[in-house]
Specification:
alpha/beta; CheY-like_superfamily; five-stranded parallel β-sheet; 387 residues; Rossmann fold; 47% helix; AAA_lid_NorR
Length: 387
């Protein structure tokens, strides 16, 4: 059912609009308000899919109603109803966020067409929000331990800013999840999130990968190519395992952070970029600095905010939640019923030494789901966990 509210002080116009919309579709639930104040009270108490609002009304005019709706329920489309003398005002309401306007007396086809389009758009907005929420859950950090609580609090404080973040912690702890959460909760979430695994790219290619190259810059450069920094423009770039980056590439990254400009390999032309940098490493960068393997000035540019992700062995209280989460997720991926784990099985998993951290735990859960019984038991863990 799609809920429509008509705010109109002329009873005759209200009756006509109610009759037209009610007869058009049995999926329309139409309500009335005789002035702006009563209309706003209804909007505060209920979610409407569409509001039709007159411009000239006592107590509170249509422009004031529109401004209030945009503050209270900004996703609700508002169609203005204008008399002949209100057309200029109706056009101005479009600048204030009105979806459209309809002249009095309402033309039947124009009215119904506008209503259908407005309702379709509301459905798209709701669906986009649902999908965005679904995407963000993909990167949700699972755990109620104090350590994870501190990380979540830090992300909530830091994400709305453009501060650079350095995420540290052992392999397999979920440093990339922190980076994705920072992006999802930031104002840049409509922009791209570009990931670069610095350890997986040969040192001779890392500069081209990050900054791009021009045709002829080196033997295999057959054409101009944009790099990851350009691809991340307006969004976030995640430099994973930055401790493995060559010193020459570090120098260029430092310049990009200092000046918000890059140069493609083989070019002296500056390209302006607007990118938030989140970096991660499993190395002790202060030791790397002492050994001459990492630039101290780059470290201080990156480590405006430091977030340390603990090893799984340091937050064993989260293992029951992680077991439940991975069991559901893996079963969904395999199209099978979700398997439960006995309390003794979970307790045994809590007592293991998880040197591979979250990544290792997930692999073990998948193995137990495939090889274990309908309910994963302590015996299954002893047989198949291979600890």
């Amino acid at each position: 059912m799609q809920h429509i509210l008509i705010i109109e002080d002329e009873a005759a116009i209200r009756r006509v609009l109610v009759k037209i919309l009610s007869e058009e579709s049995d999926t329309y639930s139409v309500e009335e308000a005789e002035d702006g104040l009563s209309g706003i009270e209804k909007i505060k108490k209920k979610d409407y899919d569409l509001v039709l609002c007159d411009i000239k009304m006592p107590k509170m005019d249509g422009v004031e109603v529109l401004e209030a709706v945009k503050k209270i329920k900004p996703e609700t489309p508002v169609v203005m109803i204008s008399g002949h003398g209100d057309l200029d005002t109706a056009v101005n309401t479009m600048r204030l966020g009105a979806f459209d306007y309809i002249s009095k007396p309402p033309d039947l086809n124009r009215l119904l067409n506008t209503v259908r389009i407005a309702l379709d758009r509301k459905e798209l907005v709701v669906e986009n929000k649902r999908l965005k929420k679904k995407v963000s859950k993909k990167y949700e950090m699972i755990g109620d331990s104090p350590a994870i609580g501190r990380i979540k609090d830090m992300i909530d404080k830091v994400a709305p800013t453009d501060a650079r973040v350095l995420v540290t912690g052992p392999n397999g702890t979920g440093k990339e999840l922190v980076a994705h959460w920072l992006h999802q909760k930031s104002e840049r979430n409509k922009g791209p999130m570009i990931e670069v695994n610095c350890a997986a790219i040969p040192s001779e290619l890392i500069e081209s990968e990050l900054f791009g190259h021009v045709k002829g810059a080196f033997t295999s450069a057959a054409k101009d190519r944009a790099g990851k920094f350009e691809a991340a423009n307006g969004g976030t770039i995640f430099l994973d395992e930055i401790g493995d980056m060559s010193l020459s590439a570090q120098a260029k990254v430092l310049r990009a952070l200092q000046e918000s400009r890059i140069q493609r390999v083989g070019s002296d032309k500056d390209i302006k970029v607007n990118v938030r940098v989140v970096a991660a490493t499993n190395k002790n960068l202060k030791k790397e600095i002492a050994d001459g393997k990492f630039r101290e000035d780059l470290y201080h540019r990156l480590a405006v905010i430091l977030i340390e992700v603990p090893a799984l062995n340091d937050r064993r209280e989260d293992i029951p939640l992680l077991v439940s989460h991975f069991s559901k997720k893996i079963s969904e991926e395999q199209g099978t019923a979700t398997k439960t784990f006995t309390d003794k099985a979970v307790k045994l998993l809590q007592n293991y030494d998880w040197t591979g951290n979250i990544r290792e735990l997930r692999n073990v859960i998948e193995r137990l789901i495939i090889l274990g019984g309908n309910e994963v038991s302590e015996a299954d863990v002893k047989s198949f966990a291979s600890k």
